[in-house]
Amino acid sequence: MFRVATKYSNAQQFLYGFKSDPVFSWAKSALIGETSFPFHIFKLVGGGELKINYYIEFWKYLINNFSTLPISSNILNLLNVKYTIDGGNTESILFHNGSKKLIVTENNKCLPRVFVVGKASILSSKKDIFSKLFNENFEPSREIIIEAQENDIDKPSSEEINYKIKNLEYTSNKITIDIELNNNGFLVLGDTYYPGWKAYIGGKETKIYKTNYIMRSIFIKKGVHKVEFIYNPSSFKIGYITTLSTVFVLIVLGILKYYKYMQNKKRLKSPPTLSIMYK
After folding, report:
1. What is the pLDDT of residue 165?
2. Are the C-beta atoms of residues 186 and 116 closer than 8 Å to each other?
3. Three-state SS annotation for 188-200
4. Counting CB atoms within 10 angstroms of each CB, which of 94, 104, 117, 120 has the fewest?
5. Among 23, 31, 30, 29, which residue's Cα sits nearest to residue 6?
6. Which residues, including other chains, have CB under 8 Å from residue 108's CB and lie 6 or more apart?
7. Residue 189 lies in a domain
8. Structural domain includes residue 263
9. DSSP 3-state helix, strand, coil percentages of the chain (rounded to 5)?
10. H or E segment to which residue 164 belongs
11. Range of the domain at 57
12. Is the pTM of this model over 0.90?
């Protein structure tokens, strides 16, 4: 799984350089359309989904400074950007659209979608986080930045961690990771920190930390673990209960209305009663 950094117009222009219809159709789906998820190819800015404020702030900052960030920059590595579609000269050209005005460039230094680090800095303000995060000396493969007011977060005992991800299952609302590691550390998931997600280690819920301003991480102890990220927002439960309650009320009202209708119908069909008065 990886991300592609491109502008919509650049990707469109690039596609018209393909001579093969099957390649054109695949690239259109993977790089431009909203069907990239089955290919496990993700766009740097996301698709058409709703974006939260801190993600927009991060993205605006990145856009304003994108021209000064080389393809091998730490921030693109952190964002799991393996390919870019853009113009300009580079040494890592994979292929181009014939005119070489638009080229696909590969970044071999990008971090995987899931990785583990042994060092964490605790910061609370956006200014401090951006200052450290976008610094050229920041090494995202070795350190993360956790946004928190308190400083009582568990810390790894060593910055050197060896780990192995044995299995990774990725769907839209559940991510399962089987991992083995020799030291305590922070497991980082390169997805947006978003309300409604819960994390479990061996079936037991654990805290998700807002990491590197837009990502998520959890503290994990050494050993063999099964980690699950599950999207289970409380708003969905409330909406589900509200919907069921509404349906139940409507059914009851419908039954009462039908009962009243049948009673009136029965009354109208009954023969009139003749009353005789005696003097």
Report:
1. 94
2. yes
3. EECCCCCCCEEEE
4. 94
5. 31
6. 92
7. yes
8. no
9. 30, 30, 40
10. strand 163-170
11. 2-106
12. no
Look at the alpha carbons of 241, 244, 247, 251 in this order and tell me if their dihedral is positive or negative: negative
- Angle value at C-alpha 211, between 207 and 217, nearest 5 degrees: 45
**Cα angle for residues 65, 98, 32 (degrees, 5° grid):** 55
The alpha-carbon radius of gyration of the chain (Å, integer) is 28
Q: How many other C-beta atoms lie within 10 A of the C-beta of residue 212?
A: 25
The full length of the chain comes to 279
Domain containing 201 — which CATH number?
2.60.420
CB 198 within 8 A of CB 208: yes
Q: Verify that 17 and 80 share a domain, yes or no.
A: yes
pLDDT per residue of the chain (279 residues) written in tens, 0 to 9: 555 555 444 444 444 444 455 554 545 555 544 444 444 555 555 554 556 788 888 888 877 776 665 544 788 888 888 777 665 555 554 444 455 556 677 778 889 989 999 999 999 999 999 989 988 888 999 999 999 887 778 878 778 899 999 999 988 899 999 999 999 999 999 888 988 999 999 999 999 999 999 999 999 999 999 999 999 876 556 666 777 778 877 888 888 787 777 777 677 666 655 555 555
The predicted pLDDT at position 211 comes to 95
Residue type, 114: V
Q: Which of 77, 106, 135 is the last residue of a domain?
A: 106
CA distances from 66 to 63, 100, 241, 259 (A): 5, 21, 45, 69
Angstrom distance (rounded) from CA 136 to CA 75: 9
Q: In the chain, how many domains are there?
A: 2
**Look-up: residue for tokens 């005696």?**
278
Same domain, 71 and 132: no
